[in-house]
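Repro case for the chain-ordering regression, as requested:
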Amino acid sequence: MIAAPAQQRQAAGARGPRPWALALLAVGTAGLAVASLFVGGFDIDLPGLAADPEQLRQFLVSRVPRTLAIVFAAVAMSVSGVVMQLLTQNRFVEPTTAGTTQWAGLGMLLAVLLWPNAPFLTRLVLATVLALLGTLAFMAIIQRIRTRDKLMVPLVGIMLGAVVGAVSTFLAIEFDLLQSMGAWRSAGFSGIVRGYYEPLWVAAIVAIAIYVLADRLTLAGLGRDIATNAGLDYRTAMLLGVSAVALCTGVTSVVVGFLPFLGLIVPNLVSMLMGDDLKRSLPWVALTGAAILLLCDIVGRIVVAPMEIPVSVILGVIGSAVFLAIALRGRRAG
Amino acid sequence: MIKFHDVTKEYGGHRVLGPVSGRIEAGGITALIGPNGAGKSTLLSIVGRLMQPTSGGASVDGLDVRTAPTRELATRLAILSQEHRLDARITVRDLVAFGRFPHTQGRLTFGDHAHIDRALDFLELTGLQHRYLDELSGGQRQRAFVAMVLAQDTEVVLLDEPLNNLDLKHAVLIMRQLRRAADLLGRTIVIVIHDLAIAAAYADRVIALKQGQIAHSGTVEEVMTAEIVSELYETPVRILEVDGRRVPVVMP
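-- result from build under test --
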């Protein structure tokens, strides 16, 4: 037998950027988070924070929650995307192209209709449950289709999402809730304040849980046969993964709204650099997602200041372009 | 030892396998041969618990493969099926490391790395270990999957057409490694294989399936006769003796 030299073993699986690159990304993301704290209609600066109680109050009530909400929502959507892409073995699937987000939206609407005075938690639970059921239905359908065409899978998801979205719109028209639906469709962080964003902490907790389960999800991503051979209970792994996605999407949908494409572009960018081993790629996915969403939000706040462009609009513009680029690239690669 | 009894598999009322019963003794290489659609892969998948039989059952080392915990089975039997994801961006080394998953649940020790290094070395993949699977040729990828199964280090190894996409050199390389695992480590290896010359050269026993039934079962000498092979494939085949070995040859 040949014993690999220690150096080689240290480099085991070493592909893509070195560890310091991750630190660099973390510093960059932290920088954007700080920038996000100090951009906005109300002038806030460091000396002011120390001297002016009103500035400090604004900072704690509005700015800090907003920045945290952006970070958590970004982590939720990009981590959801990478998990969905593993489990479906398809690079075009994420919560908005699998219908998960639309199901969450329908759940939220139903909660408002059925129990108008119910606490926030009701909306959250119903959104998550419908997101879970809808995503499981999507997974069941695509397993039956068994098509060779990778673009067929997101098309099915987008179609399902459109049907669910149409049902939601119909209900909203019937019950005169179209305006709040519109607000939900154009997600933004301008309304995020203390006492409202806190459920998003769930996303951070789920992200940690996914990190713990990373090896299992990567194995499940290699297919049912290989996962089973390795002694993994494939169905349980799938169910855990889909539940995590539903929870992240449910929370984000209820608190922030519809954040398209983030779950698509981030995992694809990271996969090119880092590969698909989730244990290695997950920190990159979370940080890249946060950086992109922070940047989109800052841009949205600056370009038409003192007004704001909702972050979902900017994401939609960037995301659809990247989606097309990936789709065309995938076609060329065969 | 592998046992299966009264195994059948039906798709939509159409029976593709069985009922078949039999046993494969511990140790040595058993080749499953037969024409396309004979049920070879189906039988292998049922024994390897990747597929549920319509009726009947199978056991490995006395463990019923339908009821035993899949994690425990994974420490005793490894199975490589034919279809794999082709576009996964997982490095060869990481893939082979997943062969250790049943033993470690993800926490690799020094001993696990030794298993991984050895499997990579056996299949001449050490130089490719940091390449992503989607950057490899079909044959290189196939070797990586075989290395993963060997790193799993189980008593029983089931392989469904592992020589797919492989050139002669690498086909022989894999068969030599399997022979070595059988001879030195006493492993029980079952392999679905289409190349009869390679099967005759490396296998100890042959099970021939046809139309979902076991047509013949026995040693290479017993099964690899011109009469049996010609009838099995409905194609005239002659068997030559070269250095005391059976070599099936197709007659044009």
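Ordering looks correct now. Residues 53-88 of chain A form the longest helix (36 residues).
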